[in-house]
Amino acid sequence: MRFNFSTRIFSWYYYIIITAILIIGALASVFTYLKISESTQKALLKNAATIGSIFDTSNILSFRGDAGDLKNPGYLSLKNKLEKIPEINSEIRFVYLWGYRDQNVYFFIDSEPATSPDYSPPGQVYGEATEIDYNMFLKNLPSTMEMSTDRWGTWLSALTPIKDPSTGKLIAVMGVDMSANTYFRTIYVYTAIPVLSTIFVLILIVVGFILRKREQEFLTFKSELVAIASHEIRSPLTGITWIMDALLREPEGMSEKQKYDIDLVKNKSEELLLTVNDLLDGAVAEKLSKKRLSKQSIQVKALFEEIRNNSFLVLAEKNIKLNIDSSVAPELTILGDLDRIKRMFNNLLSNAIKYSKSGGSVKVSAINEEANLIFSIKDEGIGISPKDQNKIFRGFFRSENAKKITSNGTGLGLHYVKQIAELHNGKVWCESKEGIGSTFYVKLPKA
Amino acid sequence: MTKAKILIVDDDEAIRKSLKDALESEVFEVITANDGVAGLASALNEKPQLILTDVKMPLLDGMGMLGELRKSGDWGKKVPVIILTNFDTDEKIMQDIVKNEPSYYFLKSKISPSIIVSTIKEKLAIDIQNR
């Protein structure tokens, strides 16, 4: 016994596909991350610029950056406005104006109420200023996003230079601090899309591969099983029927009862052999592909001769007349796998005989139709009900009328006919009237 | 007229015996062998008119035996051989069978001894005519 299970899990191209998907997924994720970070930062800077527009530069120019500002009505009205911003937009935690003197960044004003512990009075030096913060003043940086962690938490700070419109001189830097949580959430949510899609596609593909592998293993197992069954079951069965044959050839010395019993055993083993053959034919047809048919040109006249010779005994037994169209031109040929075509016609003919009444006739003929030949096998048998007519070509199906005649049969004979006809780019169909008879048609391409 | 000699090579006793009975009830003389090695030896010693052989057998299978026979000389090249098998589902074996150009090959489970006997008679009659 041979069981050809492959030891490799997947072929090399599966790994290439998986690697390619991983690379594409990683690139897409990084690209999305960068794009989303950039666009979110731009959006935040735009928000900051909107807030900046409420500042009146001449008002700011009047700030001195010390406790004296607390008496400046311009300072008080701006402070009032700023305090409201975090109340209106909860994303914004601080808004402030910075100035620069004596190498220090200091507060002009902020949005914290004077009662808050985080309140920075005018002139208070910002002790945690970063390089970027200094450079806003020293290097005149444009609007800049900065992520920083200070004693108030992790922030995204949008820093916007505020210039004197008349001189173009930098007079202050406005800072808008936003909680980084929303920013990160947005980026993570968008980046998760390509990451999760990649994982999803990978899971689908791996599951698909595994299922395909399983199916291949099952098909291999099935064909091995068929090969083993074909030999190990059929060989002893053949031996049994042939020995019965030999026994019955010399019946002298046997009682009538013994002869009858041996005949019974022989019939039963032949029946079993037929069933096994049907099952195996079906299994073989299933794994056959168009490529593996050994096609040759088959002379229809010779094919008909052979059909007649093969069915001679059965016909005589049931007293059925077989009319084979003898007018078929000798040059008429079809292209097909001789062995399978013969078995296909055998199945059709043995059905016609099996379901014919004693004394009936079966007619086999072939009609020319352009590039095809249409064969017909017409019987005067029991017929098939309209309900069953489109089911009879399915595997394991037997029509109600057929079951009334005999309980024997696998329901695979016509399924085989259909499989073989279709493998030859042909077609099979039937017309039938209950009690009058059935005609089966097979269309096959000419050679 | 001397009886035509037929060699049956098969490891299955039921097949050997039933074919022998069927052939002997006609006008044939039958010799048997139960593996390819014994079959090849009998064939070369007895020079039968026709050989019937199984495919799957111990020691040397039917294809191996046929290959040796075809290489053995003029007689071996021409002797008609009928192959009997149940391995129709195995494409490799079927290809091997066709490659060895037997006179006929049959699927055991789809044929009866009486058809084999009539085929042998036909084949030998044709051979006599052609001589």
Dominant shape of chain B: globular
Tell how many strands the DSSP assignment of chain A holds: 12
How large, in whole angstroms, is the Cα Rg of chain A? 46 Å
The domain tally of chain B reads: 1
Please, what is the oligomeric state?
heterodimer
Provide the succession of SSEs of chain B.
Answer: EHEHEHHEHEH
User: In whole angstroms, how far apart are the ends of chain B?
Assistant: 16 Å
Low-confidence stretches of chain B: none
Report the sheet with the most strands of chain A, covering strand number, pairing sense and barrel closure: 5 strands, antiparallel
Structural class of chain B: alpha/beta
- The tally of helices of chain A reads 13
Q: What is the CATH class designation of the largest domain in chain A? A: Alpha Beta
Low-confidence stretches of chain A: 1-7
SS summary, helix count of chain B: 6
Mean pLDDT of chain B: 80
Annotation keywords:
heterodimer, A: alpha+beta, Beta-Lactamase, Heat Shock Protein 90, five-stranded antiparallel sheet, five-stranded mixed sheet, 13 helices, B: 131 residues, alpha/beta, Rossmann fold, 6 helices, globular
Describe the overall structure.
The complex is a heterodimer of chains A (447) and B (131). Chain A is of the alpha+beta class and 447 residues long. Chain A folds into three domains: 24-186, 2-Layer Sandwich (Beta-Lactamase); 233-287; 288-445, 2-Layer Sandwich (Heat Shock Protein 90), CATH 3.30.565.10. Chain A is built from 13 helices and twelve strands. Chain A has helices at residues 12-52, 57-61, 73-88, 131-138, 180-232, 234-249, 256-287, 300-310, 312-318, 338-354, 386-389, 400-405, 413-423, and strands spanning 92-101, 104-110, 144-150, 153-163, 170-179, 296-299, 321-324, 333-336, 361-369, 372-379, 427-433, 437-445. In chain A, helix 5 (180-232) runs antiparallel to helix 7 and helix 10 runs antiparallel to helix 13. The longest helix of chain A has 53 residues, at 180-232. Chain B has one domain (4-119): Response regulator (Rossmann fold, 3-Layer(aba) Sandwich). Chain B has six helices and five strands, in the order E-H-E-H-E-H-H-E-H-E-H. With 131 residues, chain B is an alpha/beta fold. In chain B, 50% of the residues lie in helices and 20% in strands. In chain B, strands 2-1-3-4-5 form a five-stranded parallel beta sheet. The interface between A and B is medium-sized, with 27 and 23 residues.
